[in-house]
Amino acid sequence: MSSDLVEITLLSLAVSGAATLISLLIGLPIGTWLALSRFRSRHLVLSVVNTGMALPPVVAGLFIALLLWRSGILGGLGLMYTPGAMVIAEVVIAVPVVTGLTVAGLGQLDPQLHLQLQGLGASRRQTVWWLWREARLPLLAAVMAAFGSVISEVGAAMMVGGNIAHETRVLTTSIVLETGRGEFGNAIVLGLVLLALAFIINGILTWAQQRGPRR
Amino acid sequence: MTPAPGTADRGTVADRATNGAGRPASTLLEVRDLVVTRANRRILAVDELTIRKGETLAIVGPNGAGKSTLLLALAGLLRPDRGSMVFEGAPVVPARDLAYRRRIGLVFPAPLLLSTSVFGNVAAGLRFRGVGAAETRDRVEHWLERLAIAHLRDRPASQLSSGEAQRTSLARALVLDPHLLLLDEPFVALDGTTRAQLLDDFERLRVEAPTTLVLVTHHLHEAARLGDRLAILLEGRIRQCDVTERVMTSPVDADVAAIVQTEARVRGHIVATEDGLVVVDTGAGSGRDVEERARRLLDATRASGRAAPDDDTGAAGGA
Amino acid sequence: MIATGMDRRAPRRATMAVGTVMLAALLAACSGTAASPAPASTPAATTPAASATPAATIAASGDLILATTTSTQDSGLLDVLVPAFEQASACKVKTVAVGSGAALKLGQDGNADVLMVHSPAAEKTFMDGGYGVNRQLLMHNMFEVVGPPADPAGIKGMTSAKDAFTKIADAKSTFVSRGDGSGTEAKELAIWKAAGITPDPAWYIKSGQGMGATLQIASEKKGYTLTDNATWLASKANLDLAPMVDSGDPSLLNIYHVIQVNPDKWPKVNAACAAAFSEYVLSPAGQKVIGGYGVDKYGQQLFVPDAGKVESTLTAP
């Protein structure tokens, strides 16, 4: 069990970590653009994003499975039942979270701050960087929320990953398996490892979030 | 005195003086046919506005007149519905012109400081422009001195009083040595004592490091004190734009009059007082026989019962 | 001095670094799996992919999607059978344990390469539709009816499942069904049908889950259920249930077949590996693994290997 445990834990970390990172790369720019721009259908887009935050993960998993199955449009990629498929599904789950919280986080800033930065001669990139810095607290909260939503997710992971031993078996799907076999002791151990993992990661992020800006 | 490090010729005191007498000074910024509409309402319609190099133009108007909108347009941060701006001979593309934005300085009513130290804030604009560390340090420290906040150099922005914060904001703009400095009600959020102090310091600074200034305010006395020219903005239109004295003494219409005459001031010195009447010499005349003329003016005023100007000298009496 | 900017960036950078490491780890893990080519017939295989006869060579390689029942997984058989096959071949097995109904559907849609199922009627429909080739008898064990030790319906020791079910219905005792389209459910429904009973939802629960989970629900709710004896043996230590009807009834035979998905319908299936898998589990080596499973742990074999036998000759113990 213990060597398997290490493998399962590392896979959980790799899959959820990658998904969080990718969703940041997608969601942060989109959220920033949404926060700073004004266009006619902005409210509609924001509503869609906020609804996306409530998307049931298993629905996301089902949708991705339909695409990735051989019978599906992207079947030729052979991604079904791979960690890659799990990352894709988790990105779909996490992107609305990152986007929505980025919009909210930047929206809290004084609207004149954007103008002041521009008035100081900041280029667009410099402006965005400083706005992110000023919104550091809510943005790091967005990272934590995104990570939390995917590391603890089981429906999509099961559906597109298949819970295949040594390949796509992660902490959450292992817990389901062990519980289904009646091995509650193992299931509890896995659960504790998952909690510890989440605690450590969030601990680091919270430290980064809270440090410094007592200024 | 020694010019601030990193400054170039932004207009001398002499420039400002000649502006007052109407001799053509070099034009810094020329605005034509500027129109801004929001929600189907025209909130700004400026046919023509010229800002001369080295002058201080004060823009006064009640709340909602469009002063801040005008300032944002001048800062190149607003995309107007139509209009052209020509800066130092070259046209400005609104909302897209980083080069233009890097030649101006902008101060808002709120300090809007970044969450870093005072030094970090004042250095921000320089860092955006890629100015080297050594030069940045010199320029920042010079202006921290000038605004009497050198002792707060490493203080985090969140721990400053409102006066200190606004000084930081001003230093942040001044350190950039802008061709054009735009100030949107910079003293409005301060309490009376702080404001008075800052105004004094600011006036002194203006003399030391003259730069072209556009000051938006709804306090007439600030405009009168600091401004060479005064523009009155009402409901998005400039009703009058002229040398400060002229606007204050000869308002073009009733609305302008309502604005300027609430705190009408005359500059000059008092030559005679009697029975509650005051005769002020505004110095526009030849200075001959001031006392005798003052006596005649007092008699005339008492006789007619109201204030009367002396046509020869421009001296005016008031009760 | 100008230090403040640096400090602030460090934690951000740390987070990014950690994330990049994780991404790299993932990519490394991914490339490990991706090293095996996408499921397709390899040129090395001499198997004519379209042929119905399993003349596959062990040179077949790539990913093989095995769709099977939860009973083969929950009993632990696959934990030994699959690695044994992987050692004997270059194929990499991805086991998807979903229940016979879902497994057959995966095969029908070409989303699996080989099936290991135990739902004869549904399999017949599958074969009639031309979706599978080379359906072979693989192994069997028995179904049992298990229930609460207190036995409220009084069926302990009966030898007819049909009669036992009738008594349960009369007593209105709780009965937990798989309710998930599996082979076990198919067998259970067949027994109800034979008894001429339509179970009443008042006491008839559908778990919608695999055998292991269903047994647990039965245990918690003190209900009866139909289970294959492999999963039962593997999990009974954690359950509060006892065997009720476990011998003498031929209708409780639980027969497994292995079926390859028809590559003519779905050219993308890894036909070579599917054939190799089928050949392995039917071979003496594979049959030995099957027959030996459970003897050490539970004192008896959980599955009886049946390769080469005629189905009608199978009898209940």
List keywords for this structure.
heterotrimer; A: 215 residues; mainly alpha; MetI-like fold; 10 helices; C: 317 residues; alpha/beta; D-Maltodextrin-Binding Protein, domain 2; 2 domains; ten-stranded mixed β-sheet; 12 helices; 10 strands; disordered N terminus
Mean pLDDT of chain C: 82
The mean pLDDT of chain A is: 90
**Would you report the number of β strands of chain C?**
10
CATH architecture of chain A: Orthogonal Bundle
Name of the CATH first level of the largest domain in chain C: Alpha Beta
Largest sheet of chain A: none
Envelope shape of chain C: globular
Architecture per CATH nomenclature, i.e. the level-2 architecture of the largest domain in chain C: 3-Layer(aba) Sandwich
Distinct helical segment count of chain C: 12
CATH homology superfamily name of the largest domain in chain C: Periplasmic binding protein-like II
Number of helices of chain A: 10
Measured as a percent range, the helix fraction of chain A is: over 70%
Give your account of this protein's structure.
- The complex is a heterotrimer of chains A (215), B (319) and C (317).
- Chain A has a single domain (2-210), classed as MetI-like fold.
- Chain A is built from ten helices and no strands.
- Chain A has helices spanning 2-36, 42-53, 57-68, 83-107, 111-119, 124-134, 136-151, 155-161, 171-180, 184-210.
- Chain A is globular and about 65 Å long.
- The mean pLDDT of chain A is 90.
- By secondary structure, chain B is an alpha/beta fold.
- In chain B, the strands form three sheets. In chain B, strands 6-7-8-3-9-10 form a six-stranded mixed beta sheet, sandwiched between helices.
- In chain B, helix 4 (118-128) crosses helix 5, helix 4 (118-128) packs parallel to helix 6 (162-174) and helix 5 crosses helix 6 (162-174).
- The longest helix of chain B has 17 residues, at 192-208.
- Chain C has 317 residues and is an alpha/beta fold.
- Chain C folds into two domains: 61-141 and 255-312, Periplasmic binding protein-like II (D-Maltodextrin-Binding Protein, domain 2); 142-252, 3-Layer(aba) Sandwich (D-Maltodextrin-Binding Protein, domain 2), CATH 3.40.190.10.
- Chain C has helices spanning 4-34, 70-74, 77-88, 100-108, 120-128, 161-171, 183-195, 211-221, 229-235, 271-282, 284-292, 295-298, and strands at 61-68, 90-97, 114-117, 132-147, 175-177, 204-206, 224-228, 242-245, 253-261, 304-305.
- In chain C, strands 1, 2, 3, 4, 5, 6, 7, 8, 9 and 10 form a ten-stranded mixed beta sheet that branches.
- Residues 1-11 and 28-58 of chain C have low confidence and may be disordered.
- Chains in contact: A-B, A-C, B-C.
- Chains A and C meet through helix 1, helix 4 and helix 10 of A and helix 1, strand 2 and helix 8 of C.
